[in-house]
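Deliverable D5.2: sample structural annotation.
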Amino acid sequence: MFNQYCLISSVVAGRGRIVFRISRIETTRFFSQTIFCLRSSTAVGRQDTSVPETRTLEQPELLFNTLLQRRTEHLLGSSGCMKQARDHGISDTQYTRLGEQYQRELFSPSGNTENFGVPTFSALRNAHKNSSVRGLDALLLDGLIAFSLHNSASSVELQMQRQLTDMRYPHEWFPAARALQRTWHLHVGPTNSGKTYHALCRLETASSGWYAGPLRLLAHEIFDRLNSKGIACNLSTGEERKTVSLDAKITSSTVEMVDTTKTFDVAVIDEIQMIGDPQRGWAWTAALLGMQATEMHLCGDESVVDVLQDLAKKIGDRLIIHRYNRLGPLQPLKQSLNGQLAAVQKGDCIVTFSRKNIFSIKRSIEELTGLRCALAYGGLPPETKSSQARLFNDPESGYDVLVASDAVGMGLNLSIRRMVFETMEKFNGTNFEIIPTPQIKQIAGRAGRYRAAVPTMGPVPEAPTTGYVTTLDSEDLPILFKALSHPTVPLVSLGLAPTYPIVEHFASLFPPSVSFALILKQLQLMSFTSPTYHLCLFDEKIQIAHLIDEAKGLSVADRYTVCCAPINLRDRSVPANVLEFANILGQGRTVNIAEMQGIDLEAIDMGPPKNINSLQRLESLHRVLLIYFWLAYLPHPLFLLTVRQRYPVNFICNEQTAAVKQKVEQLIEMGLGRMRFVRQQKGQRNFKASRFEREGPVIQQAPSSTFVCNSQPVQQ
């Protein structure tokens, strides 16, 4: 027993592994707190006066480590764990040997970097914090299976896996692009500097071209702009394709939908700084490396300059940098609104980070000032956000103020005179934290932006317009000023993810009994890159793969396609629908929207939402409809970078399904003015309240290699 408690007496981090420090003082302290009777019953019979007085609950690591050891022993001895190991091709003899080795590595003080599949201490703590013992057990089990598969593989199998997971040279994935002499025009400047405008002017004159943006809203805007000027432009996003003309030489798309198989005169990649995003950065990297355009126009901020200069030299492309200043000055105001929403004026945008506060602030402003408010937050359908933006921009609409979440920072064209931060804090799923500096700058920079009431861009006006930014409360002003004066932090690496052919080949190296979720996790654990790149997180894909594990009859291509769908796992109604979609694919059935058992079409019969629950119900329905359209959409047959196929035969899309989607969007917009809440004061925004304020309901999934978020703030 003494050795056991010495082992768990103290924990520190080392090399990302659990490392235990054994200390006489700490060990005796643990005894004094937990098993005091041992001190009084010692043979010597004297007290250790060198031990400082402590309180039992001041060291939660001790309690967690005890739990961790107990759960590991329970896991290794359970018949269910042994069965799962057999299902993955691990024999009972291997299980016994590797299980003991896994346990030693889990509690090893050496921090051995060869502990493949062994969860990190922080991942285990997060799994337990977010999903209790069930989440901890799931992560320990996943780690055990991954560790066992890796250590039971032959040297030849491991060599093949390592070859596939070597991602140091992703530019070699695109030989056609490497055969071209490409020139990059990097348009760098802050928000409202005209950088994208200049790139689009070049696209308009191109004989052929492509626009790639981060959001459907932006893809739609460019689509509308070019066609309104008589320039034939087609649209391609994850959920829809609009073909204006088969002879159209220009396409506007989301960045994930770029075609790397065709040659273009000009390509425009917008918001290039997102190439460093830990989730989606891979799409910008793939577009930048793979697009066959002799003239590439990249629009972003100063943070990307160094890393793109280095990349251009490595792959032999020419880089020209164009720098821009804001068209009009951005002026931080020295005074806040002193907490008075009655001081809100026409043309203001109030930014908050809670759906509940969005509606309460809207109500307060309308009651105190008589000004009508438009709304924009992440849970709204893109079409509704675009409609609300048009209302705000149109001086004749009667909507004079915008109340928004951080969704206002990108994708919406807005005529904002003054940006007002209701708070400088945002809930991160665990507690409140100050908004990151780049996000503050992005949001604040929307003030003074040149925009018309319609989504088409006009020429840049000659007279500059000053944008103003302030806070609602005076206590937040120093944070705002510090963020706006802070220099831009350069990116150090670019996001990267394996292409579908790599995923397919890697999966073929495992027995059919191995779950696809575990294959993705193995791929994530084994993949390695050069310092120029970082591997984007697989967490959501692994969670979705866990979710559809029980679906039968799915190929690797089917499973990976579903994993790539725009699925919001924070919404409790979504997982059941995703599993139904997967079962339909596995069974080879053909359905229309009305035949889906789990889709909540009854929400439409309730009419315009009158409270937050009915609004959330419609928003959930819209999310499920988007997944349906995404699966039914038939992309260009050469778009193989992300997924192999979609399923227009299995999921019928016709006028009826389009009408259902449109009706849901209309009902959501009609209900935006009906929500009534009382705004919470900052002192009331504790952890418990924040969980109530989150955008979507909590669902618990099997943990991935890092952790499962139990709740999230309003997302973009």
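Annotation notes: The radius of gyration is 28 Å. Confidence is low (pLDDT under 50) at residues 1-58, 451-463, 636-644, 683-716.
The annotation will be released with the project's public dataset once the embargo ends.
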